[in-house]
Amino acid sequence: MGEHPVNTMQDLLRGLGFLLQMSFGVICNAIILAAYLVADCSDIKKIDIIVCHLTLVNLVSLLSRGVPYSMMLLGVPNVLTDVGCKAVIYTYRVTRALSISSTCNLSVFQLATIAPTVTPWGIFKNLVSKYILHSFVGFWILHMSTYIIMPLTVGAPVNNTIPQRAVNMGFCYATFLDYIPEILITMFTTGIDYLHLALMTLCSITMLVILKRHSQQVRYLQSTTQSVEVRASKIIISLVSLYVMFHGVDSFLTLYATYKKDGSPIVVDVRVFLSSSYAAISPLILIHFCKKMFARWPFRNRECKSRIITSVSHVSC
């Protein structure tokens, strides 16, 4: 009896902490989307579309995971039904995967932007400029197909109890498949994550090398265009570093929880916090990237909505 109020207070503080994290992230991501919506569409480039996509999936990811988890910690009973659990977890997993794909696309595109035009960089620049937006369709199909089995493995607890072969996700639970399918699916999904992480890291290192050589060659020049690209590259490298820090650890904990069958509240809390931290904090970095959009906020072009659909395929790199 004496420990119950302590546990309740701990849950309340945890719930308020997650609610604060989610609210902060939702507001920041919404501000970025609003900045692009009111901007003159003639100023929108391909890299801006990638940023918008990243912001949107981060926003949905925060809402799908943060809202029910915070409500659960704050003591709201039966946060989700069985169908709700399936829909929320599937949405979260797909948007989380799209977040890393969008961040990877952002780093690849920026590398192509600052890369020299000589061969083989010229071929790389042309391919990226031509297909970078089309790749989003492929990523949506890939991730939606990859996690299609997720609704079959998750459900809502009944009377606060979960099956024996299941891991506690807080407001939902996930049952384990047979050993071989479980290992294969986990290796495939985490393999995609680490492949993205490796590609982003490689792009960031390459950008740093190019920027260092560039600064040595044109140290005596003052170029506004060059300084803008340098600033954009540094922002994207910071974004990639943030992702590697948060989601790298989160992926490791996911593997740990799967193999050890560890669904302890501490492990669940850390995983939820880390997986939501990137979506909540990254807008602070992206806001610096979107300064030109905020500068034009009061001067919305009324024809933008009708023109942007036809202009997306014609935007230059």
TrEMBL record:
| InterPro entries recorded | GPCR_Rhodpsn_7TM (IPR017452), Vmron_rcpt_1 (IPR004072)
GO CC aspect terms: plasma membrane
Give the Gene3D superfamilies listed for this entry: Rhodopsin 7-helix transmembrane proteins (1.20.1070.10)
Q: Where primarily located?
A: membrane
Q: Which Pfam families match?
A: V1R
Any one GO molecular-function label of the UniProt entry: pheromone binding
Domain (G-protein coupled receptors family 1 profile) ranges? 28-286
- Listed transmembrane segments: 12-37, 49-67, 131-154, 166-188, 194-211, 232-258, 270-290
- UniProt keyword list: Cell membrane, G-protein coupled receptor, Membrane, Pheromone response, Receptor, Transducer, Transmembrane, Transmembrane helix
Q: Where in the cell is it found?
A: Cell membrane
Q: Name one GO biological process term.
A: response to pheromone
The family assignment reads:
Belongs to the G-protein coupled receptor 1 family.
What protein name does the entry list?
Vomeronasal type-1 receptor
Originating species: Xenopus laevis (African clawed frog)
